[in-house]
Amino acid sequence: MADFTGFTTEALDFYDDLELDNTKAYWTQHKAVYDDQVRAPMVALMALLEQEFGPAKIFRPYRDVRFAADKTPYKTHQGAFVAVGEATGWYADLSAAGVRVGAGFYHADAERLARYRRAVAEEVHGLPLERLLAKLRRSQWEVGGDRLKTSPRGFTGDHPRIDLLRHRSLVISKQYGFEPVIHTPELADRIRKDWRQARPLVDWVLANATG
Predict the structure, then answer these.
(1) DSSP state of 181
(2) What are the Cα distances from residue 14, in Å, to 28, 44, 148, 188?
(3) Which run of H or of E encompasses 44?
(4) Using the 8-state DSSP alphabet, how is residue 141 labeled?
(5) Which H/E stretch holds residue 142?
């Protein structure tokens, strides 16, 4: 396996152009760029992180368009996900916007979502989560995820953690964008540090929702 040396500007340009010309003709003409400058470095990057966090799934570049209104065939980013529970773990991707990392739970079925909301509602579990997310925000993480616009069934709008109760997924993310580090081997250390910082959230989710 090749050493990880960072992502090239050619990789960013590949996705910049793909957003403008998302066709089989473009993909066929530039597939070698995808293989050499996008996928191979992502595989090498995840291999460096595997010992501490676990093996990553490198997502396929093809979109599932069977039931989609948007029929463009190719994803405009290359994602990788380290799963440690049901739809729970660490994430990284490369796109025309640069590099982004994340962590949390990206989906939960009805049973796991009910577990999550029970934990959030209880002071013993909900308060630590609230404090943890506040600490992560201070470290430049953005808190997001799919959310209900109204209060979930069984909870009133005046609950002290109603914003967290509305979540159907809970993720944190950091955008590195075009910082010089993304073009260097040191990107692996940067991601390792941030994923370590996100570990308490992943552990909370495993213990209280999706584990």
Answers:
(1) G
(2) 12, 19, 36, 22
(3) helix 40-53
(4) P
(5) strand 142-144
Q: What is the pLDDT of residues 97-151, one digit of tens each?
A: 999 999 999 999 999 999 999 999 999 999 999 999 999 999 999 999 999 999 9
Q: How many residues does the chain have?
A: 211
Q: Quick one: 36 exposed, middle or buried, by C-beta within 10 A (0-12, 13-18, 19+)?
A: middle
For residue 21 the two structure tokens come to: 């010309």
Q: Which residues sit opposite 62 in a β-bridge?
A: 74
Question: In terms of Cα–Cα distance, which of 17, 28, 186 is closest to 96?
Answer: 17
Quote the CA–CA distance of 26 and 81 in Å, as a whole number.
Answer: 26
Tell me the pTM: 0.94
Please give the structure tokens belonging to residue 145.
């995820």
Nearest to 61 by CA among 11, 106, 101: 11
- Locus of tokens 């709008």: 157
pLDDT tens digits along 145-175: 999 999 999 999 999 999 999 999 999 999 9
- The two three-digit tokens of residue 205, written as one number: 């989710």
7-27: average pLDDT = 97
Cα–chain center distance at 9 = 22
pLDDT for residue 67 is more than 90: no
CB within 8 Å of 132: residues ≥ 6 apart: 200, 201, 204
Residue type, 68: A
